Amino acid sequence: MRVHIGTDHAGLDFSRHLQEHLEAAGHEVVDHGPTSYEPLDDYPSFCINAALGVVDDQAKGVETLGVVFGGSGNGEQIAANKVRGIRAALIWNESTALLARQHNDANVCAIGARQHTLEEAMHLIDLFLAEPFSKEERHARRIAQLAEYENTGDIAGHPIDDPGHARA
Q1: Which of 4, 34, 38, 45 is found 20 to 30 A from 136 (Cα to Cα)?
Q2: Is 46 in the same domain as 126?
Q3: pLDDT value of residue 165
């Protein structure tokens, strides 16, 4: 599987270990940066580029997922979710890693590099990458509704109250 990764200075050291770990497990890793420590760098472009890589590969039929991380994983998840077609989930334990894939067919996971030991974080990422989507009808239906809203600003048969706010 191809795995797109993106971080910021807070996850740079973790990124190096993660890349080695994923490559040793047989994954192809695409690193969207950063490549050097810059204490004032900004995560949005790195995470958005990782998410764009996932969307592009999925459109081409490539088996791919993404991993974004920083101090908490929160901002990185938000950045990835700005890309149309991305469903990024913050994972912090085994259950959230598994359910992100099983129920949400998340195609990117976000994790806080400062919230876990290296071993814990790699274990959670491994679980996420290995877990398939359940394909249960109720989950597929909900994911389709999210995609419909993302593309049209509406969900057929389900009223959306939008007092002039822009879609995410």
Answers
A1: 4
A2: yes
A3: 59
